[in-house]
Structures are given as C-alpha cells and as structure tokens.
Amino acid sequence: MAPILDINNLYKSYGQTEILKDINVSIEKGDFLVLVGPSGCGKSTLLNCIAGLEPITGGQLNIAGQDMTNVSPKDRNIAMVFQSYALYPTMSVAKNITFGMKVRGVDKSVQDQKLAEVAKQLQIEKLLNRKPSQLSGGQRQRVAMGRALVRDPALFLFDEPLSNLDAKLRVEMRTEIKRLHQDLHASMVYVTHDQIEAMTLATKIVVMKDGIIQQIGTPAEIYRQPANLFVADFMGSPAMNLIPAKVSTDGNARRIEIARDGEAPLVLTDRRGVDLPKDVIIGLRPEDITDPGSRQGDNLELADVHVDVVEPAGADTYVVSRLGGKEVTARLQAETEVRPGARAQFAFDLGKATYFDPASGARLV
Amino acid sequence: MTDLSATQGASRPWGKIALRWGLYVLLGLFALYYLVPLFVMVTTSLKSLDEIRSGSLIALPREVTFDAWAKAWSGACTGIQCEGLKPYMWNSILLAIPAVLISTVIGAMNGYVVAQWRFRGANIIFALLLFGCFIPFQVVLLPMAKMLGILGLAGSIPGLILVHVVYGLGFTTLFFRNYYVTIPAELVKAAKIDGAGFFRIFWSIFLPLSLPIIVVSVIWQFTQIWNDFLFGVSFSQAGTQPITVALNNIVNSTTGVKEYNVDMAAAIIAALPTLLVYVVAGKYFIRGLTAGSVKG
C-alpha cells in the first residue's frame, strides 16, 4: 500500500532564505508523525507545505498515493487544527463544525448527522449553539478538533494545538488526542516544540533544526540512539548529560577518562568492546546515573562524585555535579541521603552510554 | 477607576473633590463655547426678521415662528430660482448614498486583499492608496474635470459619485485594511482548508466581523461627501448641484434684505442628515475607531 504521506526532496525558501532543505519523510496509514524542534526550525512551515497553504520551492509531495505538490488545500483531503484554534468568531459551534461541509455542498441531513456524531465523540453537544467567545480554551480546542474530525480526511494536521492551554489541561488533551488516534486509526502529522508531547504521542518522530531533518525514528530510537548531539540534547528532560572524555584501550575494554576540577579524573570502563577514537563526548541519560544498588546491569561502574545541587522532584531526586567541565544530572531515588557539598557514590550504567564525535557531533556508538 | 479615586481620595478628600469639580467646570465651559453658535443659529432661525433687527443676538425668540424654515426648505432663492433647498437636498441624497455605499464596499474589498491576500507589490499599492488620502482637493480639480469630460459624465450626478468614490477609496481602504490585519491569518487558512474561496471567505467570515468598521467608513464618507463643497461646485451644473452649493447660493443671493433667519434655517437643514447619521451610528463610530487595540 502506498504511504499516506510521502515527501520527496522538498525545498522551501522565502526569497534568498532557505527555510527547508531536502526534506524526505514518509508515513504509513495509522502513523502518528510528530515534527519537533526549537522555534524557527521550519516545522510549522513544513506542516503548512503539507497542507498546501505555502507553495513549495522544490520537490514533490504525495498524499494517499496522489501527487498533491500543486493541489490547493481544499482538494488535498486533509484537515487541520491550528494553534489559535482559528474558530470563525461570528459562527456558532455547530456552524463552525459544518462550515466545510456547507461550502462543499454536502446534503443538510448528512451535515446534521455528522455533526451529531462528532459532538457526541468530543462531548460538546451542549455547546453547539454557543459562539466561540463563550467557550473556555479547552472547549475551543475540542471544537477545533471537531471541525477536523467531521471531514474524515486522509490526513490530520495539528499545528501546536495544545500550546495555548494550561499545563493540566494540556496533559488531558494530549491523552485525548492519543485516544482519538487509537480509536480512529487515523494518520496524523503533529507539530510541537514540546519534546514530551513528541515522545508520548508519536509513532514516528522527525527532529528538525534550521530546516534540516536531524533524525527520523520511533520515540525509542530517538531517545536511546540519538543521531547527533543536537537530538541528544533536545530530546529528554532533564537533558542527556554530554560530557567530554578521553578514551584509552585496555584489552577489549575502553577506559573513559573524564576530567574533574581540582581532583583526579573520573575513570569509567566500558566493557562492550566498542570502537572509539581518542576524544569523544559520552552521552548518559540522567536515569543512567543512579544510586548504587538500585540498578542491575553488567556494565555498572561505581564512582565517588562531589555533589553541587540537590533538586527533589517528588518521584525522583535530581542531583547535579560537575564533570568534564559540564553540569551533570543524576536521577536518584526520592528518599536519597545525598546532601549538597558532600561526596556521594553513583552507579554509572555504561551499558546505556552513547558516544559522539566532538568535531562533527555525530553519534559514534 | 472608582477604586483608584477611592484609594487616593482617602488621603486628601477635599483637594480631590475640588480638582474633580474644577475639571467639570472647565469641560462645561468648553461645551458651552462649542454650543453657543448652534444656540444662536437655532434661536435666530425661529425669530422673525423684525425681532432679529430689534432684539439681542443671544436672546430667546419672543414669538416662535417656523416661517424661515418653510422658506429655506421650499421658497428661498438660489440665484434666479426660488425653490428653496428641497430639490438640492434630493440631489445630495442621490449623490451621497451611492457614493458612500460604493466606496465602502470597494474599500472593504481592497482592505481584505491588502491585509489578508498578500501579493507581490501589495505594499506599494497600499502606499499609493494611502498617498491618495493626502492629495489636496484642489490638485485634482483640473485633471478630474478633464476625465469627467472624456467619460461624458461632466456636470452629472454619476460624475460626482465617481469623483467621491475615487477620492474616498484611500480612506475606506485604510480603515478596512487596518481592521482586517488584526484578524488572525490562521482564520483564513482554516477557511481555505474548509474549501472556501476568496469571496466565500470575505462574505462568510470577514463581513460578519466588520460592522464596527463599516459604520466608521459610512459615517466618515457620508460626512465628507455631504459636506463637500468644492467638488460639488466644480463638477455640477444647474439641476445637479448638491445642497452645500445651494446653501451658498441662498446666502449669497440677496434681494435687498439679508434674511438671517432663513440663512440659519437653511444651514441647519443642510447639516441635519450628517447629524442624524452620527446620532444613529455614533456609538459604533467610537468602537470602530478603537477596534483592534483590545482583543475581541
């Protein structure tokens, strides 16, 4: 079966400024693709290009097996939910939802039936006669989703739909979107700058920076095997610890030497027998630096570290220390005895470590 | 506001009250200064000529008479004709209503395009339209006369309508453009995805939002066109003259005695329609002028 969305060598520029460079993405039916990256990385522009709201400068774009490169938005069989919801202010909720069908000349009885279905699904039946200005943020969000759902499109597009909601509502709506995706088996493209939203929603993530795709992969791949330093740093909260280190070979094992201010270097041993150059940046997630004894593994290295800051976060306690000239965050159990200014023993899970080339930033292992 | 005065007034209540009353007195004086001429006009128009000659300018009429109003409406002489303002009032209505409607509709369309459908050169077009707002009337008189001659509209009411539409477009475009730029672009995007085209979006989404700015445009244009004298006197001929020109002729056609009461009544009659428009739609005028500064 043809991919539901297939983007080939897409370029987009405004005048001399290249916004998107050689974008290649493809998703299957039922995929939930999340475009994630910092502000100005081009993710919203890419979504607008998919929608046909922005013409593309080069390349080619298929939706549901049809070439849509130069097709106008209304004929692309898509629906879109916007950050500001973009509800028509003078129309009631019902009219907002049925406007598209009305424009397309859908039979009135079909309109009413679909409206009723969607209103039930989103639990907005009681709001149908209200104007958007009489709704709360979460309700507006639902109406905006209703307007998209009622089209039953080949592809749903979401442009940061949750970023105007408060934190609690955002988590609720996130779950709701995920449930909707599962129930409808719909194909979705979702833009966000929030890497937690990306991880929780996606079946496939595209990480972008400066108009270039940094990595495409499942959330697990992106998290465990980031393609480069940018992805490693961007995905995950707190961010992955990226520590400059020197490597020497000791038989099959590699000695990883991390400089410390005013004391002997910290030496860890990676026994996986990986090939490494002399200078690397070692990447360790905060959860891979833990309390000794709390983790099983055949490549655990115990070491004493000077503790700078202790940050209790409820479920866990984050402990910051300084290694290799960088702030390094460890994730300990909530009831840890560690105190700032003292020394503490951490377990480094070298079995989970990744290595990056300091010059190019690319992942080595 | 009440909170503010309460908290500040608590420390120095008397100074506060004096300041407030001083303010009211000052505002009252300004209002009085502004209203005295109107008062004189109204009272004079209700007096007989004898009373005007014998009495004081600001005295109330001893005997109220509407003779001057009747004469101004249907008997005063403009030059050699003595039909009063009535036929010219009709000319002005025939002129102002189409000119106001056409310039408002085209201005709304222009503003919609310039604000929401950016095209190459949109800024230049808008700048040129704006520039049109600042061209003095006198500059365009001769070219406009030539153009009306070529079009065969010289001396006709349609010709005057055209002049006022063209001259008003800069303003109406500016009004609508500034109103429409505050409407989020995502609304247009959403409508495009819903399948609506250029006119559908304008008709279903923009126009229903536009009442305040339509009122601004209508009041502005109506006042301009109704009160215009220069275009009216330049591009009309006997039979198509607007009311402002007729008013001028009434005041300047003296048959021995200067009939101040008729002149005053005629001036008030000529000003009544703009007053009416303002009273009916005034609250929207203020609302429309400040629209966009606060989130709707």
TrEMBL record, chain B:
<keyword id="KW-1133">Transmembrane helix</keyword>
<keyword id="KW-0472">Membrane</keyword>
<protein>
    <submittedName>
        <fullName>Multiple sugar transport system permease protein</fullName>
    </submittedName>
</protein>
<feature type="transmembrane region" description="Helical">
    <location>
        <begin position="122"/>
        <end position="144"/>
    </location>
</feature>
<feature type="transmembrane region" description="Helical">
    <location>
        <begin position="93"/>
        <end position="115"/>
    </location>
</feature>
<feature type="transmembrane region" description="Helical">
    <location>
        <begin position="150"/>
        <end position="176"/>
    </location>
</feature>
<dbReference type="Pfam" id="PF00528">
    <property type="entry name" value="BPD_transp_1"/>
</dbReference>
<dbReference type="InterPro" id="IPR000515">
    <property type="entry name" value="MetI-like"/>
</dbReference>
<feature type="domain" description="ABC transmembrane type-1">
    <location>
        <begin position="89"/>
        <end position="281"/>
    </location>
</feature>
<dbReference type="InterPro" id="IPR035906">
    <property type="entry name" value="MetI-like_sf"/>
</dbReference>
<feature type="transmembrane region" description="Helical">
    <location>
        <begin position="21"/>
        <end position="42"/>
    </location>
</feature>
<dbReference type="GO" id="GO:0005886">
    <property type="term" value="C:plasma membrane"/>
</dbReference>
<keyword id="KW-0813">Transport</keyword>
<dbReference type="GO" id="GO:0055085">
    <property type="term" value="P:transmembrane transport"/>
</dbReference>
<keyword id="KW-0762">Sugar transport</keyword>
<keyword id="KW-0812">Transmembrane</keyword>
<feature type="transmembrane region" description="Helical">
    <location>
        <begin position="264"/>
        <end position="286"/>
    </location>
</feature>
<comment type="similarity">
    <text>Belongs to the binding-protein-dependent transport system permease family.</text>
</comment>
<feature type="transmembrane region" description="Helical">
    <location>
        <begin position="197"/>
        <end position="220"/>
    </location>
</feature>
